[in-house]
């Protein structure tokens, strides 16, 4: 699964005017939702998915457990909803006008996510847990991996349209290469990168795409 970035937590904010209303249900305070989300990511990083409890999230957020159940029906639903929202929002793949600029921007986004304390702990844990929990894996694959992979595919299609990559490009392998080497280095073997690492990796990837 591609790297999925989480937001940096902030302390619960004072209650603001009522927010959205669930169909046939109570009005949900946006500030409470934000506090619960921040607490969720902190607790997920600290405990891991397997040991994560909604009681611990509620306590960390300074909210009642009922506040969580008014928003999500289970730990799985809460995890998929919050992680997906953050991961999809972060999958920008900016159009810089060139293949090299697009690849470098993509790698920079991935590196930034993997070097933050919370994502660095959350992403490997969720991937590992997905191997033990098919329901979690299926949910995150459909909402996070597939969405981010589709965004990355747009990067390649732009390059093909500009004539920078061949039309017969093996897109599946190219997508794997885009994130694989950097994820391995930063999230698996935890090896620091030199200042020019992303530039050098960008050049190697483009050469591989064109081979």
Task: Please name the CATH architecture of the domain at 85-210.
Answer: Orthogonal Bundle
C-alpha termini separation: 25 Å
How many helical elements?
Answer: 9
Strand portion: under 5%
Structural class: mainly alpha
CATH topology of the domain at 85-210: Tetracycline Repressor, domain 2
Give the helix proportion (percent range).
55-70%
- Unreliable segments (pLDDT under 50, ≥5 consecutive)? 1-22
Strand/helix succession: HHHHHHHHH
What can you see in these coordinates?
The protein is an all-alpha fold and 211 residues long. It is built from 9 helices and no strands. The radius of gyration is 19 Å and the shape is elongated.
Short description:
With 211 residues, the protein is mostly helical. The protein has helices spanning 30-47, 54-61, 65-69, 75-90, 99-115, 117-132, 134-161, 171-188, 197-210. Helix 1 crosses helix 2, helix 6 crosses helix 7 (134-161) and helix 8 (171-188) runs antiparallel to helix 9 (197-210).
């Amino acid at each position: 699964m591609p790297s999925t970035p989480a937001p940096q937590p902030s302390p619960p904010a004072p209650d603001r005017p009522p927010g959205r209303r669930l169909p046939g249900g109570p009005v949900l305070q946006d500030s409470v939702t934000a506090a619960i989300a921040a607490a969720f990511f902190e607790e997920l990083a600290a405990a891991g998915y397997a040991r994560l409890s909604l009681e611990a999230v509620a306590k960390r957020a300074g909210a009642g457990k009922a506040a969580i159940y008014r928003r999500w029906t289970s730990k799985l639903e809460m995890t998929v909803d919050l992680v997906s929202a953050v991961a999809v929002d972060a999958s920008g793949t900016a159009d810089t006008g060139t293949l090299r600029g697009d690849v470098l921007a993509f790698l920079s986004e991935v590196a930034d996510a993997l070097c933050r304390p919370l994502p660095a702990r959350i992403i490997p844990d969720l991937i590992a847990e997905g191997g033990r929990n098919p329901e979690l894996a299926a949910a995150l694959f459909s909402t996070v991996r597939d969405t981010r992979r589709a965004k990355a595919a747009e990067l390649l299609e732009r390059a093909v349209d500009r004539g920078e990559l061949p039309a017969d490009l093996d897109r599946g392998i190219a997508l794997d290469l885009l994130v694989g080497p950097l994820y391995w280095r930063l999230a698996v073997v935890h090896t620091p990168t030199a200042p020019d690492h992303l530039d050098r990796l960008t050049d190697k990837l483009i050469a591989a795409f064109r081979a």
